[in-house]
Structures are given as structure tokens and as C-alpha cells.
Design goal:
The complex is a heterodimer of chains A (516) and B (624).
Chain A (H helix, E strand, L loop, with lengths): L1 H26 L7 E3 L6 E2 L6 E2 L8 E3 L5 E8 L4 E6 L3 E2 L3 H9 L5 E9 L5 E3 L3 E5 L9 E7 L10 E6 L5 E6 L7 E8 L2 E11 L2 E8 L2 E5 L6 E3 L5 E13 L8 E14 L4 E4 L8 E8 L5 E8 L19 E8 L4 E9 L1 H4 L2 E7 L5 E7 L12 E6 L5 E3 L9 E6 L5 E6 L8 E6 L10 E2 L14 E8 L7 H9 L26
Chain B lengths: L1 H31 L3 H7 L13 H8 L4 H12 L4 H25 L3 H7 L2 H11 L5 H20 L4 H19 L2 H16 L3 H21 L4 H6 L12 H36 L4 H31 L2 H13 L3 H10 L7 H13 L3 H4 L22 H14 L2 H14 L4 H13 L3 H11 L6 H13 L7 H9 L11 H11 L4 H13 L3 H6 L14 H14 L12 H16 L4 H12 L3 H7 L7
């Protein structure tokens, strides 16, 4: 027995000392009485400086890009609340509870960061204070975003998944992963007004080229791919674009090797009442490509893109004049009660902008239209010069989001429910891997400096081979399990659909050859 | 001596020592002849890559599913294959422990007399698999875990049915989580022991029931498919992770060899030991020790005989192809050509042909000796088969060729395709880093190097590169980067080109791009455009040729023979021997013009390595 107690004592002593060591290491505060000032702000990664941040965002952990023996960071606001972090590593991990408390108590105020580093001689240096502004109380960001994670794929894919991330902490979970459904591709997901209870999610692969419709926790398989989809605010119809898109490659001379072209496309709509896909007569010209439908918040207009077909041969890839394809921004009126469409009209022409207009998304209050422009093409992220623009819907004037954009490609943007935040994919971190960025949009439609989605570790992005795209805000988590979605996808039960025959409709059963 | 040893080690120690001697031989064989570096090279190219990275993130991800621990262990141990000695140690330890467990179980079953021989079956089986270029470690880690859990279960010997059931359940669940489908082997063998050894029918039924049920329940918790629930990690898994046919064949050969050898020696031993026993009854102690030694000698001979026959029976073309590919992968071009001369079979497929083209290019012999080897249409570019991907072996060669040419975007595309579909191979990360550094995208290069820095073998190289990038993001003093930048095409193009304009573009970017020129020449030679060989004589000086390479000379002479035109030779003279060979060939060809197959057969020994022969008969690789 004596020996047993001795062993127990040793074990407890080791565990106790280890715990004490970690507690001291993590929460220790240092008393810096003397330091020298450095006349520049610290270089931190990700760049979390001069931002407007949501009060419910997860801790914005960062790394100090300066070799040192020790690091000390004090995060505080004007009302003296503060968080102190001491670390021997340059990674600064902010405690979640303290961070949340600090942000919640200081809506509309600034949060400051004092960064100190200790040199090899034991002397401390303090950088210029950096700061961010906490957004107002009614300007919280939606709690979740749903996005796709995949590697920079070319012709073949193997591992594509739709994930959801809680923005208030670091929890990420799989909504559906291609591996659970025979390495299928899972793609565009859409909600009604960011409400995760209703969702459309496309997939293609071993179990078909179909769409999953989720409503109030129940999933059903609908027998066609929806492509780019926009749900009418009433939830009664969803506009979708059918397309035949092909990937091709730049054999030399470009940062991004990949490129795509839509050889054929059209906008249709799915009527949930009659469970049928319907054509829009005004948009059925085979000589015109239409894509990227997006409803206005009042549901009275469908915005979409349009461009004439510039080639004769619809099978040649890339087709002639592919580099001249520039889409115009159009809209068409719609009456949900009578199911009647009006005539289409041009909102902004590529002739005027000199650029191809892509992915129109209107703010929830209907005041602003966020869109992409790039030199040519229907796919912004393969164009290095693709930038975000904002149009004032009242004046029709638009301007580039200089603060939110970078010198690399940006796209796949969406609005938060309250219209104060936008999330988008950006290749700012090198030009190949897309990362998710969030930007605050003020009352005047001005987008502020954007920031990369915070992660538990600042080193998260250092070795991350995945790209993030099609982010959509969601007001809560998607409740339906991956198992259930997988079961429905694998099942043979499908709501069969007859596609209306329009000039641009692909032949029934034709799968897209291009896989992103 | 034997008494001395027994005194020193005790009886058990003495036996262990004797068996250890046999494993020393096994180790020496693997170390000196079963070069594990070849198997490391085969990862991805010939067998699945057992991925492994250091760090918690990979560990957590790896062990977060049934079978994950065995895979993680396999991945870790497989990395040591990179070192000839380390690989041999790993194999010897894993196989040794498996044999020990097998021997103990045979002994538990009451077949002590068989334990010495049956215990070695795993070792012989491993040799069969290893010689067949199958990565057997994955099988053995699972087997090892399941056999040792069974040994533990049999050693515990609980008398209460309930306790035994609980113990089995606990062990089974843990083993299932660690080794996936291998737990089934444990369950079935435990049931077998209960029925045939311990005579506990109820216990056996419980084992079988739990073996069937537990995977279903655990599999449901992890949302596994039925095939994964029962077959994951087992060699019978129909998915092509391992060649089940080869495994079955290796097992058959192993069992057959060992039992045949045992039968032969048992017959001989009976006669000899019965004579000896009658003569030396008085010296019992020494006789016992002698028996142990004799038994060990006999067992050793049985095992060695079985092992030798297994190695002989399983040594095939695979290992030779792998050896040639290894030389190519390491850039040991001289050794590759030597090996190809010794074993021409390694050149009899497009991949082998490609390796030879590369070796000839790097040794400056392409224009001299190309047609000493058989030529395949796919040998130049190793295209994908049908609509499938190239696969890793072809793909990585294609990336190397593309980088050599300066075709960076295509190398990048291929690398991403392989990364997504073949696996996270260190070579891909390295190549993608190099491509991005060359394209002045150091941030992207860093991502790949950061991942690679967690590789057990190549991590140091990656870390070193990261340090260099921190100092100079463009790596402007790196010789390979300088070379790549000097040959890479920079003008944006999406046009899919045929070989000729494609290579000419590279030559336009850099007229000294030797691989582009030699590929252009091979293309002209293979497509019999001899006039274009003649027209390109002016470029010969750009590549430092001291004389007109033999095949180019042969093509030029054929061109002159056809057109009788004046040719501006730019000062180059064709070797008189090439003229002479040409005249002899034409004379021989004319002697029997009607029967071409007969002519081809007749001329092959003398002219089979000339371009003349290829030009007329579309064959090559004779008369080496």
C-alpha cells in the first residue's frame, strides 16, 4: 500500500506541477515598467488593424511578425476593461470569454492593442497602439456562415465539402461532404433570407446530378441541378441558371492557370407550389447567355447577367472571342401573385463599364447592389483583376470597394441579414488560395477595410491547402445532419422534373463537364 | 558451447537467442537485398502512399476513425523506409513481433511442435509481398495488433463468463478503433480458441455475435459504409488499395513453401534423431540441449528453404521496373542506362521508355542511342489513358518533364490534379513550391513548404527553403530557379498546340533549351520528318554538340538520299561510319524487298539500333 501511495503522490505532483506551469505560462502578467517606444505599428498576421468588427465575432487571434524572446499584448477599451496576454510564442491567443465580454460591453467604441516585445537583452519595446472599432449593438453579424471547402481543383475533384462555421467561436462542422456520398461534388447552397431552415444544395456525382431541398428539417431530392440559385423572398419560387460551362487553361503567362467559359446558359425558375421548372419567355434567346440570377429583397425584380454569344462553334473550348465575353447587368420584373414576368431591362452595361459584371447581390434593405467586375468571363475568382463594386440603387452610381478589395481576385460575396456585413472569397493571401473575408458596410454603403475570417490559431492559414468559396451568411446552424442529407442523396426517391425546352436549355441528363 | 550458451541464457533465453539468429539473417537480407528505399520510391507510383505528417493536427485527424491508429502507425513506420537501415529495422521488428505472436498462439493451441515453423509463416509471407513490390507493412501492423490482443486475451484466462465477455468486448472495441477490420480476425480466432482449445461453446458464440455486432454499432456512430465497417484495412477490401490477388498468391506460395520444406525436413529429421536417441540415452542433459539445437537447425533450414523458394518464385518484373524507376527518380541516369542494358525488360513499357529518354537526355546520348531502345508512342509525354487521370507515376514524370521544359503552368495543373486525386505526396508539395517561387508567388510557395515541413523525411529541406525565402522571397540566386525563369514561357496563351509549335515556342523563349530541342528532334525522327532534322542543323551549336549525333546524321542522310538536294550543313560533317552503315543497310534492304517481316528479322541484329531500321520497320531496340 505504501508504494501505491507513493506512486499516486508522484503522479499527482507531476500533474499538479504541469498544470501550474501551464497556468503561469498562459495567464501570467508581466509588469513592464521600462520600455522603449517603436515609432511604427506592429506587423501582425492576419492584418487585424483599423477595422470595424462585429461585437459577436470570435477572438481575432493573430501573430506578431517580429522575432522576440517574449510577447505581451494588452487589449483594452476606453472604459479600462482589458485583456493581457503574455506569450513566449508570437501567436497571440485571446481568451474567448474575456474577449466576448469586452466586445459586448463596448458597442460602438474602439478597442486598442498595445503590443510589447522583449529582446534578447531582456529589454521591452512597445509598438504604436493599434485599434479596431466595435460595431454598434444592432449591427451584430449573423452567427454562422456556410461555405464550400476544397483544394484548388482543376478537371478532377475528390474531396469537396460544404461546411458551416460559427462566427461567434471557432466551431466548424460539416454540412455535407462529398466523401460521404461517393466522392460527389457538393455545391451551391442557398437560403431564404439567410434562414437555415430552408436550403437548396446541389450535388453531382455517383448518385446523380440533382439538388437537395431542405425545408423545416426535412430533405428531399429534386431531379435537376439548380446551378446559381436565388430564392425569392417569399420562398415560393427560386430562380436558377442552367449552364454548360467549360474549364480551360492558360499554358503560360498567368498567375491563375484556370479559366472558364459558359458555352450556353439560361435563367429558369422553380415553382415550389407546382413543383415544376419554368422558363422565362423573355430570357429564352439561344443567342444570349443569361446567368447569376438574384432577387431584389422585395421580390419584384430578378437581377441577372446577360451577354451575347460571340462564337459559332459551341463545342470548341475555349471558343473564339472568349476574352471578349462581358456580361451586362439586367433585371426583369415579376409578380409573384400572378406568376407573370415583364420585359427585361439593362441596369448597367458592360459597354459603359468596359468590364464584365458578375454576381449581383442586393442588400437586404434594397439600397445597395454589390457586384463584381473583371476584364472578361463569368467566373470572377479566376480573373486576377476581379474586384468588388457597390451600386447605389437610387442613383445608379457605383464605385469600387477600395477598402475591402485587394489587388487579387475577389468574388462570391453575400450580405448579412441586417445588411451591415458582407462576406466574400478573396485570393489576397498569395493569389491562389481563396480565404473568406468580412467587411463592414456602413449606412452610406461604404465598405470598410475587410479582415480574414478569424481562426483559433493565427498559423491556421499558413499551411492550409483548402480554398473557401460560395460563403453565405446564416442566422443559425443548419440543423439537418450530414447523415440525413447523405441518406436522401443516396436514396432513389427523387422529385422528377420536366425541364422547359428553351433555346438555351441543355439536353436533359447532360452533366456539366467542368468541375470547379 | 551449446551447454555454455544454455547456462548463460537459461532454456528460454537460449531458444530466444537461437530464433533471434534467424531474425538477424532476415534483417541482413532486408537491409542488404530488400532495399526499402525502393519501396519508399514505390509509394504512390506502384503502391498507395501511406501519408504521414508530424503534429497534433494530423494525428487527431488520422485517429479520428476506426483503423486510424493502425494507419497512423503504418504511415510513420513507412517513412523510415527512406533509409535502407531504418527500413530494415522497422520490418524486422514488426515481422519479428508478428511471428512471435503467431508462434505463441500456435503454442497456446497445443501445437508446440508446430510453433517453431508456423510462427515463421508471417516472415515468409512478408518476403513474398516485399519481393512482389507490395507494401506489406499496412497488413502487418493490423495483423500484429490483432494477434497481440489475442495473445493478451488468451493470457488473461478469466473464468467467469460475464467477465470474459466484458473483457472481449472491451478489447474488441479498442482493437476495432485502432485497427479497423483487423478486429474481425481477433474475434474469429478468439471464438476458434474457445471452441477448439478451451471447449467453451457459449463463449465462442458470444465472440462471434460481438464480432458481427460491434463493428455495425461503431460504424453507425462514425457513419461508415458497410464495406468500411467490415473490410477497412483488410487486404480483402475490393477497392484497389492493395493488390488482393498478389497478396493471395504470396500467401499461397508462403504456406506451400513452408509446409513442403517442413515435410521434407521432418522426414529426414525423424530418421536421424531416432538413431541418435538410441545411442545417447545416458547423456540426457546434453541430449535435451542438443535436441533444441537440432530442432532449431531443422526449423531454420525449413524456413530458409521456404524463404529462398518464395523469393525465387515471387521475383518478377515488378521489382526490376521499380529499380529502374528508382534510378530515374533519383536522377541516377548512368546507373539507369546500365541497368536497362542488364535488364532490357525495364524499357518495354511507355514509362520505361520515358525514363530512358530522360536518361539519354541527361547523359547527352539522346541523339546517339535513342533507337537502341524500344520506342512507344506514349513514351515522350506519358499521356493519360483514356479519360482517366495520368496517375501518380506518369503524372510526376510529366511534371518533371514540364519543369525541365519550362512549362510551368502545365506542371502546376498536373501537380494540383495529383494532389487532389492521388494524395498529399512530398514531391508534389516541393514541385508546387518551386513553381510558385519561379512565378514570383512566394506566399503560395510558403503554404506548400509549411505543409512539407511537417514531413518526417523532407521537412528539413522545406524548413531550409522557408528560411531562404524569408531572406530572399524571389530566391534570385538559386540555380534551379534561375534556370526555370530562363526557360519558362511568359506570354499568355490558351491554345492547345501540337508538339512542333509547342517546342519551337520554348526554343524561341530560350534557344538553348536543350530538352525542347531534343524533344523536337525525337518528334521529327519518330514522325519521319527527316527534312526538318536537316533544316535544324544550324541549332546544333547552341547545344554544345561536338559532332552530329548518330541518329540525326542517319536522318539527314535519309533526307539527302530522298531529295538529292544540296544541304547547307553549317559546317557540320556526318560521321563516315554513319554513311557506311547506311549503305550497308540499304544494300541489305534491297536484297529482299518483298518480304518485309523477314527483312526486319534478318536485319535486326546488325541494324536494330539504327534510325535506318526504325525508319523502315517502325521498330527499334534490337542489336544492343
Amino acid at each position: 500500500m505504501k508504494y501505491k501511495f507513493r506512486y499516486l503522490f508522484v503522479i499527482f505532483a507531476v500533474v499538479g506541477l504541469t498544470a501550474i506551469f501551464f497556468v503561469l505560462e498562459s495567464d501570467a502578467s508581466v509588469n513592464i515598467e521600462t520600455y522603449t517606444d517603436i515609432s511604427s505599428p506592429p506587423s501582425i498576421y492576419p492584418d487585424y488593424t483599423d477595422l470595424v468588427i462585429p461585437s459577436n465575432i470570435a477572438p481575432m487571434n493573430f501573430r506578431i511578425e517580429q522575432p522576440a524572446e517574449k510577447y505581451f499584448v494588452r487589449i483594452y477599451t476606453s472604459d479600462k476593461q482589458d485583456i493581457e496576454i503574455v506569450s513566449t510564442k508570437p501567436e497571440i491567443i485571446i481568451p474567448l470569454k474575456k474577449w466576448r465580454k469586452l466586445l459586448k460591453a463596448n458597442h460602438g467604441k474602439s478597442v486598442f492593442y498595445d503590443v510589447y516585445v522583449m529582446g534578447a537583452d531582456g529589454g521591452w519595446q512597445r509598438y504604436q497602439t493599434i485599434s479596431n472599432k466595435i460595431a454598434g449593438e444592432n449591427e451584430e453579424i449573423d452567427s454562422h456562415i456556410v461555405y464550400r471547402r476544397l483544394k484548388p481543383n482543376y478537371n478532377w475533384y475528390n474531396s469537396v465539402g460544404v461546411f458551416q462555421r460559427n462566427l461567434e467561436n471557432f466551431d466548424e462542422s460539416v454540412v455535407i461532404h462529398g466523401k460521404s456520398i461517393g466522392n460527389s461534388c457538393v455545391n451551391c447552397h442557398t437560403f431564404i433570407n439567410n434562414d437555415p431552415k430552408s436550403m437548396l444544395l446541389g450535388f453531382r456525382g455517383k448518385f446523380g446530378y440533382d439538388t437537395i431541398l431542405v425545408e423545416d428539417g426535412k430533405a428531399e431530392k429534386v431531379g435537376t441541378t439548380f446551378g446559381h440559385t436565388s430564392w425569392h423572398p417569399s420562398g415560393k419560387v427560386a430562380a436558377l441558371s442552367k449552364y454548360r460551362v467549360k474549364q480551360f487553361f492558360h499554358f503560360a503567362g498567368r498567375e491563375e492557370v484556370r479559366d472558364v467559359v459558359e458555352l450556353d446558359s439560361c435563367v429558369l425558375y422553380y415553382d415550389f407550389r407546382s413543383k415544376s421548372v419554368k422558363a422565362i419567355k423573355a430570357l429564352a434567346d439561344k443567342k444570349i447567355l443569361e446567368t447569376h440570377p438574384s432577387w431584389s429583397p422585395d421580390g419584384k425584380y430578378l437581377y441577372f447577367l446577360s451577354t451575347p454569344v460571340l462564337w459559332e462553334d459551341r463545342h470548341n473550348v475555349p471558343p473564339e472571342n472568349f476574352e471578349k465575353v462581358k456580361y451586362d447587368l439586367m433585371r426583369i420584373s415579376y409578380d409573384i401573385n400572378t406568376d407573370k414576368w415583364g420585359e427585361s431591362e439593362t441596369v448597367l452595361s458592360s459597354e459603359k463599364t468596359g468590364l464584365s459584371i458578375l454576381m449581383p447581390r442586393i442588400s437586404p434593405d434594397g439600397r445597395f447592389l454589390l457586384f463584381n467586375m473583371c476584364e472578361y468571363s463569368c467566373f470572377s475568382l479566376f480573373q486576377t483583376n476581379s474586384d468588388l463594386y457597390m451600386m447605389d440603387m437610387e442613383t445608379g452610381e457605383y464605385e469600387k470597394l477600395e477598402m475591402a478589395s485587394s489587388n487579387k481576385a475577389e468574388g462570391w460575396h453575400s450580405w448579412s441579414t441586417n445588411g451591415r456585413w458582407i462576406v466574400f472569397s478573396s485570393k489576397r493571401d498569395g493569389g491562389i488560395f481563396t480565404r473568406l473575408c468580412i467587411s463592414y458596410v456602413d449606412q452610406d454603403g461604404k465598405a470598410h477595410k475587410s479582415f480574414m475570417l478569424p481562426q483559433k490559431s493565427a498559423a491556421f492559414y499558413d499551411s492550409l491547402l483548402d480554398t473557401f468559396n460560395t460563403p453565405e451568411f446564416s442566422t443559425g446552424p443548419i440543423e439537418i445532419s450530414e447523415r440525413e442529407l447523405g441518406r436522401v442523396i443516396r436514396s432513389k426517391s427523387t422529385t422528377k422534373l420536366e425541364l422547359p425546352i428553351t433555346g438555351a436549355t441543355p439536353k436533359a441528363g447532360a452533366g456539366e463537364a467542368w468541375r470547379q | 558451447m551449446k551447454v555454455l550458451l544454455k547456462t548463460a541464457f537459461g532454456k528460454t533465453g537460449y531458444i530466444v537467442l537461437l530464433h533471434s539468429l534467424l531474425f538477424c539473417c532476415f534483417f541482413l537480407y532486408i537491409w542488404l537485398y530488400g532495399d526499402t528505399r525502393l519501396m519508399y520510391h514505390a509509394f504512390g507510383r506502384f503502391v498507395d502512399y501511406p501519408a504521414f505528417f508530424t503534429g497534433w493536427e494530423f494525428f487527431i485527424e488520422a485517429v479520428d476513425r476506426p483503423g486510424g491508429i493502425a494507419e497512423y502507425l503504418t504511415g510513420f513506420l513507412s517513412q523510415l523506409y527512406y533509409y535502407q537501415f531504418g527500413g530494415a529495422v522497422v520490418i524486422t521488428v514488426v515481422v519479428g513481433l508478428t511471428c512471435l505472436a503467431a508462434g505463441m498462439l500456435v503454442s497456446f493451441a497445443g501445437f508446440n511442435f508446430l510453433a517453431g515453423i508456423v510462427g515463421y509463416i508471417p516472415a515468409v509471407f512478408f518476403l513474398a509481398m516485399h519481393t512482389k513490390c507490395e507494401h506489406a507493412l499496412g497488413v502487418f501492423v493490423g495483423l500484429l495488433l490483432s494477434l497481440w490482443v489475442l495473445v493478451a486475451y488468451e493470457k488473461i484466462r478469466l473464468k467467469s463468463f460475464a467477465l470474459r465477455g466484458c473483457c472481449f468486448l472491451l478489447m474488441f472495441v479498442l482493437l476495432y478503433l485502432a485497427a479497423g477490420g483487423w478486429a474481425l480476425l481477433f474475434g474469429i480466432l478468439a471464438a476458434g480458441f474457445d471452441v477448439f482449445v478451451r471447449r467453451r461453446l457459449l463463449s465462442a458464440c458470444l465472440c462471434i455475435l460481438l464480432t458481427g455486432l460491434v463493428p455495425l454499432i461503431v460504424g453507425w456512430c462514425f457513419d461508415l459504409r458497410m464495406i468500411d465497417i467490415y473490410l477497412y484495412l483488410l487486404p480483402f477490401d475490393p477497392r484497389p488499395s492493395m493488390n488482393a490477388k498478389e497478396i493471395a498468391r504470396a500467401l499461397q506460395i508462403s504456406l506451400l513453401s513452408i509446409f513442403l520444406a517442413a515435410f521434407v525436413f521432418q522426414f529426414l529429421l525423424r530418421r536421424k534423431t531416432s538413431d541418435k536417441v538410441s545411442r545417447k540415452k545416458s547423456k540426457e542433459t546434453e541430449a535435451n540441449t542438443g535436441k533444441i539445437l537440432i530442432r532449431w537447425v531443422v526449423q531454420s533450414l525449413v524456413v530458409i528453404l521456404a524463404a529462398v523458394s518464395v523469393v525465387k518464385l515471387t521475383t518478377g518484373i515488378e521489382i526490376k521496373r521499380l529499380q529502374a524507376d528508382f534510378y530515374s527518380g533519383k536522377g541516377m541516369w548512368g546507373e539507369l542506362l546500365e541497368y536497362a542494358d542488364r535488364y532490357p525488360v525495364v524499357t518495354y513499357d511507355p514509362e520505361g521508355n520515358h525514363n530512358i529518354i530522360m536518361a539519354l537526355h541527361h547523359t547527352g546520348k539522346l541523339g546517339e542511342e535513342l533507337f537502341r531502345y524500344p520506342q512507344f508512342n506514349d513514351g515522350m509525354f506519358l499521356p493519360s489513358r483514356g479519360k482517366e487521370l495520368r496517375g501518380y507515376r506518369r503524372g510526376i514524370s510529366y511534371i518533371r518533364l514540364s519543369l525541365l521544359l519550362g512549362n510551368l503552368n502545365i506542371a502546376e495543373k498536373e501537380a494540383y490534379e495529383l494532389l487532389e486525386n492521388s494524395g498529399e505526396y512530398p514531391e508534389l508539395f516541393w514541385n508546387l513550391a518551386i513553381i510558385n517561387i519561379t512565378k514570383k508567388q512566394p506566399k503560395v510557395a510558403r503554404v506548400f513548404l509549411e505543409v512539407l515541413s511537417r514531413d518526417l523525411i523532407h521537412g528539413k529541406k522545406a524548413k531550409n527553403m522557408l528560411r531562404r525565402l524569408a531572406e530572399d522571397p524571389e530566391l534570385s540566386d538559386d540555380k534551379e530557379i534561375i534556370r526555370l525563369r530562363s526557360v519558362m514561357r511568359t506570354e499568355d496563351t490558351v491554345e492547345v498546340q501540337t508538339v512542333e509549335p509547342f517546342m519551337l515556342e520554348f526554343l524561341e523563349v530560350n534557344p538553348h533549351n536543350r530538352i525542347a530541342f531534343e524533344y523536337l528532334m525525337i518528334y521529327y525522327l519518330k514522325s519521319r520528318q527527316v527534312d526538318k532534322i536537316a533544316k535544324n542543323m544550324y541549332r546544333f551549336r547552341d547545344f554544345g554538340y561536338k559532332k552530329v549525333p548518330r541518329h540525326f546524321g542517319e536522318a539527314i542522310l535519309l533526307h539527302l538520299g530522298q531529295t538529292r538536294e544540296h544541304l547547307d550543313s553549317h559546317g557540320w560533317k556526318i560521321d563516315p561510319q554513319t554513311y557506311k552503315t547506311g549503305e550497308m543497310f540499304m544494300a541489305a534492304l534491297k536484297s529482299n524487298p518483298a518480304d518485309r517481316p523477314a527483312s526486319a528479322r534478318k536485319l535486326a541484329p546488325v541494324f536494330g539500333n539504327t534510325y535506318y531500321y526504325y525508319y523502315f520497320f517502325n521498330q527499334s531496340g534490337f542489336g544492343r
